[in-house]
């Protein structure tokens, strides 16, 4: 084909894809709404009076314009979890990182385009513990005319796994901040906002998921729980995993999923069982030792349309209950996470420009001299804390980091986050108590535009080892390896998958182990990387990358919107 014809064809195809792309406009009103669960009514913070909030459905290439109006009594921001936000970092949402919060009575319009992503993402509040009730699904369909790389499902159902407190979640976290102890555990898990049949006063609302004999359906599972990784299964039905975090994977079949908070998994299920009712169930994966956790089980019902109808006694048919792994079944988690591969060969950075090693874990602060014993109710009169590379992250409160960076405001953050642990130690062994108290700081890591980055995320056994779901804003990354014990670059580099590693936005770093991720820093802006167990974010298990602008407009972050909230 002549070069001119090729160029013309490419230009024509670009115009066609732009013509199909839509701009979707929505309004999210954040407000108090009475929500009754577990026999009690709470004035919960919701979006548009819905719990969970509205599901947004878009096509790859569409632009979302969401005006958020804050009619609640708390500051709020909304994060579009997993959206790449190419050049639109002002719309990312974490408070005091990319924006100041939307104050009560205020509003802010998030504008961004979905570029090259398909599958299941979600949105949630990114301010204090508001995301306990402020969350919803964000479903990205292929561009019009494109197909899924798997059998077209007859129907699609989003399943949001949540966590419910029989209290005001903001009061729960505030009490923990006052006492220095771990926050109270939740009272229930939920599926699409409903706890299900195994809890008091809950059977009336149990979520029903319809299916018919012979159908192949797509279930989009999202772990929106605040603090708990969860196992998920459906009685007597195989789950074929086809996607995760809005990236397609080589299909594999399993009986059970494990999702850390923040993670999504797309599965196909077949209506190949006798028409009846089958429980869909989720409960905790608990890897931390001697830590209290909510050991209840949430259920929904997979109901065959051809099963006996409720009026004829069908509702009395007790659904079949699946078995779930033991709460601490790390072997099941490991074999599940090692099953993930990208659908095709991918372009993983072979060489790296930035080789980073981050320890992640808990810690204990000695009781400050001006505190009384009521404020130091952690183990042995301490206060819980958390850190990466011995730095416990402190959010600013006068400016967001992105604003300070773009306006050149000094004194808001420093660029001296350590690229490796300040002290080398036996990370997963018996750690000296002298290493349990981190320093505090708002330290960021500067990355040159286009640099190829590798991060080793190493769990520590300080206080307790734990599986940490680490989420990076503004990027997808390849998980090239994971393992147990201390990462050893000499031995473990041979295990790297540089052919078809899975692409994720949240990695469940193994308990007492490590994970290695790689990405190219091609999205300028300020991006937080944090543990998605919200209890740990509050304690400081976070850090920030400042990715510098490249050359020209297309490699630079856009100018801030005029309605960006002021601090």
Please, could you describe this protein's structure?
- The chain is mainly beta and 567 residues long.
- Helices cover 10% and strands 37% of the residues.
- The protein is built from six helices and 32 strands.
- It has a six-stranded mixed beta sheet, with no helix packed on it. A six-stranded mixed beta sheet has the order 21-20-25-30-27-28. It has a five-stranded mixed beta sheet with strand order 11-19-18-13-16.
- A hairpin with a 2-residue loop joins strand 1 (23-37) and strand 2 (40-47).
- It is globular and about 65 Å long.
- The model is unreliable at 2-17 (pLDDT under 50).
Radius of gyration: 23 Å
Q: Whole-number average pLDDT?
A: 95
Major sheet characteristics: 6 strands, mixed
Question: How widely separated are the two ends?
Answer: 57 Å
Strand content: 35-45%
Q: Approximately how much helix is present in the residues?
A: under 10%
Question: Which structural class should the secondary elements be placed in?
Answer: mainly beta
Q: Spans with pLDDT under 50 lasting ≥5 residues?
A: 2-17
